[in-house]
Amino acid sequence: MSTPSVLGAWHRFSGSWPGRLLVSAAVWVRAPYFLTAAPVIRRLEPGRAEVSLRNWWLVHNHLGTVHAIASCNLAEYAMGVLAEATVPPSHRWIPRGMSVQYLAKAETDLLAVATFPSPPAFSDAREDVDAEVTLTDAAGTEVVRATITLRISPRPARTAVAA
């Protein structure tokens, strides 16, 4: 039995705010760690994901700004839905590393935009691909830049289990 795709759910429910929230929450359920930041998908298509994070007390640091790790969570969530929307069912992906630059204080809601600068080949070989994620504040100032390396590989063939 296959799991419904994030992109398929997005196409079905993204026409309204409750629908976008429903798809975003489905990802939170699949990866509960993201509940702490509660990111919401704004736009999703193969090769591009836009995800927002509300600036509220649960994501604050001791200065009252968005915590560095909440920013990393937003970047990783955006990369994850980008990968889910882009990588075909014949392949799988896993993050291999993340490089982050904190460029300015994050004092407002944030928008993360995740893209693949070099599209994956989806060949029969494993490949490492970088996803670029930029986080901007409400004024459009880039506050965080992240590069997340993903390992993309073909899914192994499933063998039938004898009863």
From TrEMBL:
It comes from the Bacteria. InterPro entries: DUF4442, HotDog_dom_sf. Pfam families: DUF4442. SUPFAM superfamilies: Thioesterase/thiol ester dehydrase-isomerase. This is Hotdog fold domain-containing protein.
